[in-house]
Amino acid sequence: MPTPDSSLITRVVRQLSAPPTYAEAGVRRSILAAAASSYGFHADLDELTQPTGFDPEAAQLFEALVESAFLVAKADGHFDDTERAAFHQVVLAACGGLVADRQIAALLADLADLLQEDGLEHRIEMIARAVGKPEHAREVLRVAALLAHVSGGVSEPEVQVLQRLAQRMGLEQPALNQALSEVKQALSR
Q1: Tens place of pLDDT for every residue, the chain, 189 residues?
Q2: Nearest C-alpha neighbor of 12 from the set 81, 91, 80, 79
Q3: Residues sharing a CB contact under 8 Å with residue 89, sequence separation 6 or more, in sequence order
């Protein structure tokens, strides 16, 4: 894969950080960014002895959002070092400093191992179990579609994984079509 266009990466990061178009009025950041705050906080739990504000469901949602995008990125069989580095940097930037670089690197390594051990269908099932709300399911599709654009658009194998994710999370084809359309429109600005 050629090096991704920096202006495209900037637009993707901006969209990943911003609330989706379907968010309620007054929402200022994306579900990914909100969940990142709990996930990033998790790294420091070993050093804490007092009760914390850590939300394990938010951390699990963060992992599901990143894993969905990872599965879509891997769908076309091309996830070379350049694409992996771009993916890593985009997720890191979209989290706005709430998640450490080492956490993203470790998460991506874990996701690669899990995909190899469990297979695609099992990983899709695990994402569906972690996503309990319809708006979270829609965000899974949006995040995965946005990150797919980093590598030059959403290919047919990537669309197929998005369809499987949508179906397993109980979303109909129109929800996926809307996510893909909104992402394409947002990135063309």
Answers
A1: 556 677 888 888 888 888 888 788 888 888 888 888 777 755 444 444 444 556 788 889 999 999 999 999 999 887 888 888 888 998 998 888 889 999 999 999 999 999 999 999 999 999 999 998 999 999 999 999 998 888 778 899 999 999 999 999 999 999 999 999 988 888 887
A2: 91
A3: 9
83 in any annotated domain: yes
Residues in the chain: 189
Find the domain containing 131 and state its range: 6-187
Amino acid at site 99: V
Does residue 166 lie in a domain region?
yes
Query: If we measure between CA atoms, which residue out of 177, 1, 115, 139 comes closest to residue 61?
Result: 139
Distances (CA, A) of 140 to 48, 62, 65, 174: 31, 10, 5, 15
